[in-house]
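Action item from last meeting closed. Structure (938 res):
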């Protein structure tokens, strides 16, 4: 077959090995987007493994206002030296906000420097609540950058003249504060925080923007003398108002956040004035009116947070924006805040600095008073110690410890049912402080109490304390009872469970194996104790990806529990849950769903409707429905689970974060990216606060956010995040999670046109999935399919062919009814063979593919493209009469489709289909028709 002599996009001469008729420039620009655009990879059961859809190519231009690669639609903001347009980026067909220097400012070097300063500051930040930069460039000597478009406007516009409710205000400012803290961690001070510089998305979440006055601390980028008090005086820190630009620290931005909070609480900024000089003076010298005097609904704690940010002295404000965010989080959770209002003592101390003589006299009186009080306290403490010494009998200690065990078991999170657990945490911590001394003579009692405390701490998500208690329990019992005792095995299993919660799966597995060996030696091969230890071991093996051994042990435990405990016991339900997880991994979604539903019936009978075990089952069943593409059902289950978990565990807990993450994944699959991102970010923040930095759940959160960025077409940011995820997962023990991340990273690399790196990455993902899941698993076939598409796009048909044959073979084995992915694979294999000149072998595959498409997906680009390929395979066999109607119908069908949904990739298909018609008439000996079609294509 003759090769195309020129690039199908730009018409330049092609090198001999140019893939798909594209010159190197066009290939680098378009990446693999058109090659993957028809992909319909099988749905994934894993929330971190979502197919990345490329952005759609642009429609024909409807206006004539252009700026480089951007179609300018309307001006949406202006101020200072910049102007912002709503624009369409043509190469990726997405709406963006395009910021450029106003033409009248081009002659000002300072304006250009401030603009470039903003560009550099914003482009280096990657945070969900900071406006992301898409592209930075220079067009005809005018610098610009494009960023995400927020059509909901900014906070100043949303506020207007009204007050916001307190809770939404705190939630918004918490997110803004954490975004500002992130900028500080990356060496950037904003220096112009105000409501107009917080853009709002559709959910009302804030996104920090306008870094025009930002300071890059490590470069000491400062403004000129004439610019030192640039900014917005009403929201400006006193030191900034005084012109101390070079001395500004992160405290200046903390002040700006407090000023925004003040505006939201009171309806006005902290200060106003008749002119700028008067306003600057008031900012430096006066205290703001207390918010509760302007809005009686403002409570004491929220007012304290606000006023601490607005302290005149930088060192009296919050030490960081994160510290402010932490207090807002405490306020939202109904917990005590760290900041304290200026007390009478503090006011008195400030007065003392103005009245040193009087203060000295008062100080003398206070010293005498304190000394006298100290003597009384000492005598009281001695009396209490004597009383304690008289009551150290062993029986009393044991009774007290037994009472504490009963109390802890009675008010733990599993049975608290929404009551505030802060008291429980305080009791635990106080008991932990006293247990070493007050039970030191009763090691058996101490061990029993520590075991209960370890389990309670673990349930509360306080894993470090739980581990400490569990290890001490084991030490005490081993010293008292030896190495082979039932209580020692129980302690080993408890420690294994805590270690699994922490993500330390290797030691958890070792501890569970030790416990199982002891139980079997003491109880034989069949006993409830043995079943429990088997199930514990199976659960950690599941987490480690050792699925075959895990399933065998869980089935053994389930049979044993049913034999000894009956059909409706909580331990039977636990085994059903673990077994369902393993069955799901094997790809048997229907079997997994049946097990989950059986488990749910048992748990509701045992515990009622509102119990954490019921919530966990709802969560797992929701993940299963998501894998089966029942997104509406999955969302409902996750929301029900979230409600129960928040009621039982409170607003912040690792299990709450799990459900937030899973609910976000469902919303992502539904296309609700903003809500999904909000939940992902909330889950990540919670996990980073509660778990160690290397915990697998934190890595999962990073992975989910990376997938979301890729789905939005933010490939550079997605690549960076996926590389971080892969780096973290190479240190972990879960090879399948690593394979999922490698797969997603490979697709991103392909979309960016980095085919060599994409191939290496996708191959590694495929090898892991082959080893762990086998060739017949849907995720393995997914890897094969995407790697085959990569080979097809680079004209390496011999590499693609065996992969496509394997996908077709195993997908046919899995189900007698062809799936959409297997239909597409049939057509792709036919195309692969035809492009290698194997026309006779390709013909039946293309006929089958065309028949399937016409039945299930008629009048689609895939159907018409397959029809053209079938005609081409007949042409290659010189079956001209059969080829002609197919080629003509395919061309006309593609043309009609293009009129409905024009795109660049579709134009390529039309061009190729037309050239096949020219080739038909040339080979058939009909030069007039060939010339006519050549003219028609031209």
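Sequence:
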């Amino acid at each position: 077959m003759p090769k195309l002599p020129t690039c199908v996009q730009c018409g330049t001469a092609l090198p001999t090995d140019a893939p798909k008729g594209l010159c190197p420039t066009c290939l680098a620009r378009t990446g693999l987007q058109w090659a993957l655009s028809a992909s319909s990879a099988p749905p994934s059961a894993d929330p971190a493994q979502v197919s990345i859809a490329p952005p759609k190519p642009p429609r024909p231009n409807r206006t004539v206002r252009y700026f480089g690669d951007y179609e300018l639609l309307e001006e949406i903001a202006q101020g200072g030296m910049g102007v912002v347009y709503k624009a369409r980026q043509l190469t990726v067909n997405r709406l963006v906000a395009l910021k450029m220097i106003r033409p009248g400012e081009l002659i000002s070097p300072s304006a250009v420097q401030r603009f470039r300063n903003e560009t550099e500051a914003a482009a280096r930040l990657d945070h969900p609540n900071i406006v992301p930069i898409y592209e930075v460039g220079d067009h005809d000597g005018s610098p610009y950058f494009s960023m995400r478009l927020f059509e909901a406007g900014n906070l100043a516009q949303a506020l207007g003249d009204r007050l916001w409710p307190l809770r939404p205000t705190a939630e918004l400012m918490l997110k803004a504060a954490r975004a500002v803290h992130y900028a500080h961690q990356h060496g950037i001070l904003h220096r112009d925080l105000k409501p107009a510089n917080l853009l709002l998305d559709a959910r009302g979440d804030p996104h920090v923007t306008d870094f025009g006055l930002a300071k890059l601390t490590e470069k000491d980028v400062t403004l000129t003398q004439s610019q030192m008090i640039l900014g917005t005086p009403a929201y400006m820190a006193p030191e900034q108002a005084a012109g101390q630009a070079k001395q500004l620290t992160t405290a200046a931005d903390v002040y700006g956040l407090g000023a925004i909070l003040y505006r939201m609480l009171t309806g006005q900024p902290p200060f106003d004035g008749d002119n700028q000089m008067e306003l600057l003076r008031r900012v430096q010298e006066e205290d703001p009116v207390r918010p509760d005097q302007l809005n009686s609904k403002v409570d004491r704690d929220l007012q304290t947070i606000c006023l601490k940010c607005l302290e005149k002295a930088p060192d009296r404000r919050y030490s960081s924006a994160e510290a402010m965010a932490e207090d807002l989080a405490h306020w939202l959770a109904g917990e005590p805040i760290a900041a304290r209002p200026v007390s009478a003592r503090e006011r008195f101390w400030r007065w003392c600095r103005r009245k040193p003589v009087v203060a000295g006299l008062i100080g003398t009186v206070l010293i005498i008073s304190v000394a006298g009080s100290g003597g009384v306290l000492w005598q009281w403490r001695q009396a209490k110690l004597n009383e304690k010494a008289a009551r150290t009998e062993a029986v009393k200690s044991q009774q007290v410890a037994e009472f504490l065990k009963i109390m802890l078991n009675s008010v733990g999170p599993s049975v608290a049912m929404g009551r505030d657990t802060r008291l429980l945490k305080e009791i635990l911590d106080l008991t932990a402080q006293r247990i070493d001394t007050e039970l030191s003579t009763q090691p058996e009692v101490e061990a029993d109490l520590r075991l209960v405390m370890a389990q309670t701490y673990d349930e509360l998500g306080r894993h470090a304390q739980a581990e400490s208690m569990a290890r001490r329990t084991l030490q005490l019992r081993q010293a008292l009872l030896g190495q082979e005792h039932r209580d020692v095995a129980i302690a080993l299993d408890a420690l294994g469970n805590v270690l699994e919660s922490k993500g330390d799966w290797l030691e958890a597995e070792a501890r569970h194996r030790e416990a199982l060996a002891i139980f079997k030696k003491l109880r034989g091969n069949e006993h409830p104790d043995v079943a429990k230890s088997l199930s514990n071991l199976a659960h950690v093996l599941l987490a480690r990806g050792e699925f075959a051994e895990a399933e065998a042990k869980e089935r053994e435990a389930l049979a044993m529990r049913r034999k000894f405990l009956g059909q409706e016991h909580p331990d039977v339900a636990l085994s059903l849950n673990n077994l369902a997880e393993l069955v799901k991994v094997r790809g048997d979604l229907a079997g997994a769903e049946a097990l989950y539903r059986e488990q749910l019936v048992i748990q509701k009978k045992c515990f009622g409707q509102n119990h954490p075990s019921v919530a966990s089952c709802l969560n797992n069943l929701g993940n299963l429905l998501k894998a089966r593409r029942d997104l509406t059902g999955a969302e409902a289950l996750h929301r029900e689970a979230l409600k129960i978990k928040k009621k039982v565990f409170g607003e912040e807990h690792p299990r709450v974060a799990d459900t937030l993450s899973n609910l976000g994944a469902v919303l992502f699959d539904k296309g609700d990216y903003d809500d999904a991102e909000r939940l992902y970010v909330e889950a990540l923040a919670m996990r980073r606060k509660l778990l160690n930095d290397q915990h697998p759940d934190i890595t999962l959160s990073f992975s989910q956010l990376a997938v979301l960025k890729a789905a939005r077409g933010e490939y550079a940011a997605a690549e960076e995040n996926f590389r971080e995820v892969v780096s973290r997962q190479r240190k972990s023990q879960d090879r399948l999670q690593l394979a999922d991340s490698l797969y997603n990273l490979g697709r991103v690399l392909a979309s960016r046109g980095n085919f060599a790196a994409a191939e290496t990455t996708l191959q590694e993902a495929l090898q892991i999935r082959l080893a762990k899941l086998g060739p017949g698993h849907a995720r393995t076939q997914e890897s094969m399919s995407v790697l085959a598409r990569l080979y097809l796009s680079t004209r390496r048909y011999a590499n693609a062919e065996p992969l496509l044959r394997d996908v077709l073979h195993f997908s046919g084995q899995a189900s007698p009814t062809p799936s959409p992915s297997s239909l597409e694979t049939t057509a792709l294999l036919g195309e692969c063979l035809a492009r290698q000149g194997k026309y006779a072998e390709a013909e039946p595959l293309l006929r089958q593919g065309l028949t399937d498409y016409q039945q299930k997906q008629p009048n689609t680009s895939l159907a018409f493209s397959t029809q053209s390929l079938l005609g081409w395979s007949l042409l290659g066999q010189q079956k001209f009469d059969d080829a002609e109607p197919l080629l003509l119908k395919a061309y006309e069908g593609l043309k009609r489709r293009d009129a409905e949904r024009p795109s660049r990739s579709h134009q390529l298909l039309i061009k190729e289909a037309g050239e096949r018609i020219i080739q038909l008439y040339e080979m058939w000996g009909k030069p007039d028709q060939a010339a006519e079609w050549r003219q028609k294509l031209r």
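Note appended to the action item: The mean pLDDT is 79.
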